[in-house]
Specification:
The complex is a heterodimer of chains A (about 110) and B (about 120). In chain A, strands 2, 4, 5, 6, 9, 10 and 11 form a 7-stranded mixed β-sheet that branches. In chain A, strands 1-3-8-7 form a 4-stranded antiparallel β-sheet, with no helix packed on it. In chain A, a hairpin with a 6-residue loop joins strand 4 (about 35-40) and strand 5 (about 45-50). Chain A is mostly beta strands and about 110 residues long. Chain A contains no helices and 11 strands. Chain B has about 120 residues and is mainly β. Chain B has strands spanning about 5, 10, 20-25, 35-40, 45-50, 60, 70-75, 80-85, 90-100, 110-115, 120. In chain B, the strands form 2 sheets. In chain B, strands 2, 4, 5, 6, 9, 10 and 11 form a 7-stranded mixed β-sheet that branches. In chain B, strands 1-3-8-7 form a 4-stranded antiparallel β-sheet, with no helix packed on it. Classes of the chains: A mainly beta (about 110), B mainly beta (about 120).
Chain lengths: ~110, ~120
């Protein structure tokens, strides 16, 4: 099983600031990595797939990068609605796994 | 519009059983592999199981293998998860999720549509 480790666990920023979230895989997942956003009481929403492709309807302020074992989700300028929990997920084999999440909170 | 609606959650004693259902609409259900994903209270996401579009191939996380059974009825556009020998650690919100791309076979994909989830609580 591929283990994904996200950092930091919590990120405290203000609206308008830039957010950088990290995800590290225990072995290479090539470019097969996605990012999700989850707000309290809601299901996760797919933001980014295959490292850097935005899902339908996702604003351009969300971007992804990386390859192999190290990946980054960047939110260029935080909007109030962006404060949530973010998960990474790999699909390099038939057994998908998720990171433990990064909580993005308002400073 | 794709919609996934789970039902069947509730309170069950350790060792008990429960069957979850997920009614799907807005896409060709029989052509799509489907999956269950769970989230324990205050915790992260855990993939549980997947099934091919025909129902002929099934896949399970080690944590539920031998206790849970995924199935589907394509005539009813419904996905199921039969959960037996339930444990306290199975307590979670269970989500039905559609993999992106809508492939017939399970490829371990990303999930672009999710239901609202149904809460399963295992407690005496």
């Amino acid at each position: 099983e591929i283990v994904l480790t996200q950092s930091p666990a919590t990120l405290s920023l203000s609206p308008g600031e830039r957010a950088t979230l990290s995800c590290r895989a225990s072995q290479s997942v090539s470019s097969y990595l996605a990012w999700y956003q989850q707000k309290p009481g809601q299901a996760p929403r797919l933001l980014i797939y295959d490292t850097s492709n935005r899902a339908t309807g996702i604003p351009a302020r969300f971007s992804g990068s990386g390859s192999g074992t190290d990946f980054t989700l960047t939110i260029s300028s935080l909007e109030p609605e962006d404060f949530a929990v973010y998960y990474c997920q790999q699909r390099s084999n038939w057994l998908p796994t998720f990171g433990q999440g990064t909580k993005l909170e308002i400073k | 519009e794709v919609q996934l609606l789970e039902s069947g959650g509730g309170l069950v004693q350790p060792g008990g059983s429960l069957r979850l259902s997920c009614a799907a609409s807005g896409f060709t259900f029989s052509s799509c592999a489907m999956s269950w994903i769970r989230q324990a209270p205050g915790k992260g996401l855990e993939w549980v199981s997947a099934i091919s579009g025909t129902g002929g191939s099934t896949y399970y996380a080690d944590s539920v293998k031998g206790r849970f059974t995924i199935s589907r009825d394509n005539s009813k556009n419904t996905l199921y998860l039969q959960m037996n020998s339930l444990r306290a650690e199975d307590t979670a919100v269970y989500y039905c999720a559609k993999p992106q791309g809508g492939f017939l076979v399970w490829l371990g994909g990303y999930f672009d549509y999710w239901g609202q989830g149904t809460l399963v609580t295992v407690s005496s």
